[in-house]
């Protein structure tokens, strides 16, 4: 079914706005995946704040102009689904990687982060990034470690004094 010019402009504007606010994008070939499976994928994507877009390649190429994802132009060949991560750079990579494990027909074409296009073999590099919550937890642990060590060190001083006094007391009792 043909899309009118106004519809095309709306699609381009929507994809451009999404790409402008995205932290990363993952492209995949979805041929052979059932509509039921795609619906399940979309539900998981909404839960993880990943925006999935299936757009004609020529419209997608126009939409990504002026964004840091112009580099994906060469990957936009054949049926392509674009997964934009909005909060966590690795969310789309994890989502599509897990989906590709379940569905053999689903093939990851590539990914882009910070204006750099990477091949499908680099999906683990992005998927293994910690989530925001995990990163904050690691930061809290690193920040807390020196304080904990200082508290233990300060606690050792009275303990050592007590041991020294006890040793002197034991020495005097033995001598007496």
TrEMBL record:
Lineage: Bacteria, Pseudomonadati, Pseudomonadota, Gammaproteobacteria, Pseudomonadales
Organism: Marinobacter confluentis
Segment forming the signal sequence: none
GO MF: large ribosomal subunit rRNA binding
Pfam families: Ribosomal_L10
Keyword match Chaperone: no
Gene from which this protein is expressed: rplJ
Subunit note: Part of the ribosomal stalk of the 50S ribosomal subunit. The N-terminus interacts with L11 and the large rRNA to form the base of the stalk. The C-terminus forms an elongated spine to which L12 dimers bind in a sequential fashion forming a multimeric L10(L12)X complex.
Gene3D superfamilies: 3.30.70.1730, 6.10.250.290
Name assigned to this protein: Large ribosomal subunit protein uL10
Record bears the keyword rRNA-binding: yes
């Amino acid at each position: 079914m043909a899309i009118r010019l106004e519809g095309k402009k709306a699609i381009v504007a929507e994809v451009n706005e999404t790409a402008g606010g995205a932290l990363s994008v993952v492209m995949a070939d979805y041929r052979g995946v059932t509509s039921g499976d795609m619906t399940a994928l979309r539900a998981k994507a909404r839960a993880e704040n990943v925006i999935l877009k299936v757009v004609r390649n020529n419209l997608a190429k126009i939409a990504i102009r002026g964004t840091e994802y112009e580099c994906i132009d060469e990957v936009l060949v054949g049926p392509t689904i674009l997964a934009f991560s909005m909060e966590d750079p690795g969310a789309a990579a994890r989502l599509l990687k897990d989906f590709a494990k379940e569905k053999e027909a689903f093939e990851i074409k590539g990914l882009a982060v910070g204006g750099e296009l990477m091949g499908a073999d680099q999906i683990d590099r992005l998927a293994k990034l910690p989530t925001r919550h995990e990163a904050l937890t690691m930061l809290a642990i690193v920040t807390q470690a020196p304080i904990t060590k200082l508290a233990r060190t300060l606690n050792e001083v009275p303990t050592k004094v007590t041991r020294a006094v006890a040793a002197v007391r034991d020495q005097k009792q033995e001598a007496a």
